[in-house]
Amino acid sequence: MAGRYDAIIVGAGHNGLVAACYLARARWKVLVLERRPVVGGACVTEETFPGFKVSTAAYVNSLFRKEIVHDLRLADYGLAFLERNPSSFTPFPDNRYLMLGADADLNRREIGKFSTRDAEAYPRYEAMLERVASVVEPMMTMVPPDIVRPGLGDGWKLLQLGRSARKLGAALGEVMEIMTGAARPILDRWFESEQLKGTLATDAIIGAMASPSTPGTAYVLFHHVMGETNGKRGVWSYVRGGMGSLTQALAQAARDLGVEIRCGAEVARVEVGDGAVRGVTLAAGDEFTAPVVASNADARVTFTRLVDSGMLPPEFIEAVGRINYDSASLKINVALAEVPDFRACPGAKAGPQHHGTIHICPDQDYIERAFDDAKYGQPSQQPVLECTLPSAVDPTVAPPGQHLMSMFVQYAPYKLRGATWDEMRDPFADRCFDLLNEYAPNFKRAVLGRQVLAPVDLERIFNLTGGNIFQGAMPPHQLFSFRPVAGYAGYRTPIRGLYLCGSAAHPGGGVMGAAGANAARVMLRRR
Ligand SMILES: Cc1cc2nc3c(=O)[nH]c(=O)nc-3n(C[C@H](O)[C@H](O)[C@H](O)COP(=O)(O)OP(=O)(O)OC[C@H]3O[C@@H](n4cnc5c(N)ncnc54)[C@H](O)[C@@H]3O)c2cc1C
C-alpha cells in the first residue's frame, strides 16, 4: 500500500490532530498515522470497565486554547467543558477540610478557618499570578525565537518580549522567580497556613520528579493556573464524556476537512534522502510519501527510533540525549459503587466535596518526605494523591448510581531500586487505597475495579519516554527557546521537511493544542 500526501502526521495525540486540522484548512492533503487502536494519545476516553467512560491518562482541562475550539467549531462536534465548582477539596487528618474554587467569598471563608491573614492575602496572590499570566500567556502561541542562530525575525521577537516584560516594572523580579525558582519559598512568603500551602503546592509537582523546594517547580505551579474554562481564568473543567470527547471532536473535524486518519498504524521509520524528508514506512511495511512529516511523538522517540541518527548532526543527537525524562507519576482509574464518604465532610451522595480535585496532602513537608523516598528509588511510603470524580459532575461517564475516580499519584519513580514495577504495581496501589480509606472509610469496599498505570505502563501504552507525562520534563532549561533543544525550538528539525508538532516542543505538556497549532503555522510558511 502506498500513497502521496502533502503532509503526514505521526501520532494522533490532540496536538497531532490540531496540526492536521490547520493544514487541511489550508487545503493540504493530510494523513494521520496512529499506532494505538484509538486516536487521542494521552487525551483519550476508553471503556476500561464495562459502562464506564474512563479518561485513561489526562483527566481535567483548562489549558486547551479557546481559539482552536472556535476555529475548528469543536462545540458543533459535541465538545463541552463542565466547570468544577468548588474546584478543590483537601481533607486533613484532624477532620478539618479546606475547599477552594472560583467563588471569592467561599475562598475567604474557607482559608479563614486556618488563617485570617492568608484569607486576606489570597486574592492578592491570585492577582499576582494574573499579572504574570498576562505577560507569559501570549508566549504560548508564539514560535520561540532561535537563540543559537538568531535571524532578524528572532531579534524582533526578543525585542517584543523585552517590551512586554517592561510592562511588569518592578514585578519583573517576581516573574523571574516564578519562571526559574522553587514553589515553596514563594508560597512560604505569601502564606502562613500549612493547610493552604500544601494544597497549592500540589500544582507545583504535577508530573515532575521534584518537590516544591526544587528550582523550576514554581513554573509548573504557574503552568497549571494559566488556563481557563468558559472565559474564567484558572478554572479547570471536566470534558463531557471524558477527555477523549475532545480528541474525538478534533478527529471528526479533521475528517470533515478531508484528513485521512489511520489507527493501528505504527510508524517504524521516517524516510530521509538528501537531507530532506521523503515520507514514512509503517511497522507493517506500508509506505507513504510526503515532503512534510510532523512527529507528535516525543523528541527521544522521534530522533533515536524513527529517524536514522546518522542523518542528524552529532551535537543535535547529544542534545536530545540530554533531555530530562524523569518521571514519578502513576495513575489509577477506579470504578466505584458509591462516592467516598469523607470523615471530614460526610455525605454518601455526590456533594461539593466531590466536584473538584480531592487532595490527600496535608502540608508541604508531607510532599518533601514523599519525594525523599522517590529520590532513593522507592515509591513514597505516604504518597500525594490527587483524586477526581468526574461522575459527580458528569453523569455520562458512569452507569447510574456508580462513580468513576481518577487517582493521580506521586511519587512513583520510573526507575525503582531493588524492585520492578511488575512487583510493585499492586502493593503500591494497595498503599494508595489504604491511605484514601483513612480519610473516607467506605472507599475500599466501594471499589468495583481498578486500572493501575505505573510510569513503565505510560511509556508502553502512549510511547512516552520514561513515562514522562509531558513528553519531557519542564524545568526552565527545557522550556521556550530550549524546548526540545536550543536551536530547534521553532518546530523545525535538522532534517528539511521534518517537524515536531507535540508537547515535546514549546509550550510543553498539558492538553493545550498550542504546539500543534504553532507547528502548523510554521509548516504552512513553506509554501
Ligand atoms: C497520566 C497522565 C495524566 C495527565 N493529566 C493531565 C490533565 O489532567 N490535564 C492536562 O492538561 N494534561 C494532562 N496530562 C498531560 C497531557 O495529557 C499531555 O501533555 C498531552 O495529552 C500530550 O498531547 P500530545 O498530542 O502532545 O502527545 P500525546 O498525547 O503523547 O500523543 C502522541 C501520540 O503519538 C502516537 N505515537 C507515538 N509514536 C508513534 C509511532 N511511531 N507511530 C504512530 N503513532 C505514534 C502515540 O500513540 C500518541 O497517540 C496528563 C498526561 C498523563 C500521561
**Overall number of strands:** 22
Across the major sheet, the strand order is: 8-7-18-19-20-17-21
Kindly name the structural category. Answer: alpha/beta
| Major sheet details | 7 strands, mixed
Can you tell me about this structure?
The chain is α/β, with parallel strands linked by helices. The chain is 35% helix and 17% strand. It is built from 17 helices and 22 strands. A 7-stranded mixed beta sheet has the order 8-7-18-19-20-17-21, sandwiched between helices. Helix 6 crosses helix 9. The longest helix is centred in the first third of the chain and has 21 residues. The radius of gyration is 22 Å and the shape is globular. The site of flavin-adenine dinucleotide has 40 residues, from helix 1, helix 11 and helix 16.
What are its keywords?
alpha/beta; five-stranded parallel beta sheet; 17 helices
Quick recap:
The protein contains 17 helices and 22 strands. With 527 residues, it is α/β, with parallel strands linked by helices.
SSE inventory with pairings:
Blueprint: E1 2-4, E2 7-10, H1 14-25, E3 30-33, E4 45-46, E5 54-55, H2 66-71, E6 81-83, E7 88-91, E8 97-100, H3 104-112, H4 116-136, H5 152-166, H6 172-180, H7 183-190, H8 194-205, H9 217-223, E9 228-229, E10 232-233, E11 237-239, H10 244-256, E12 260-262, E13 267-273, E14 276-282, E15 287-289, E16 292-295, H11 299-306, H12 314-322, E17 329-336, E18 357-360, H13 364-375, E19 384-388, E20 403-410, H14 421-439, H15 443-446, E21 447-453, H16 455-462, E22 498-500, H17 514-524
Parallel strand pairs: 1-15, 2-3, 2-16, 3-12, 7-18, 16-22
Antiparallel strand pairs: 4-5, 6-11, 7-8, 9-10, 13-14, 14-15, 17-20, 17-21, 18-19, 19-20
Helix pairs in contact: 1-10, 1-17, 3-4, 6-9, 7-8, 8-9, 8-13
This protein binds flavin-adenine dinucleotide.
Residues 10-16, 33-36, 41-43, 57-61, 63, 266-267, 296-297, 301, 306, 331, 458, 462-464, 469-471, 502-503, 509-511, 515 line the site of flavin-adenine dinucleotide.
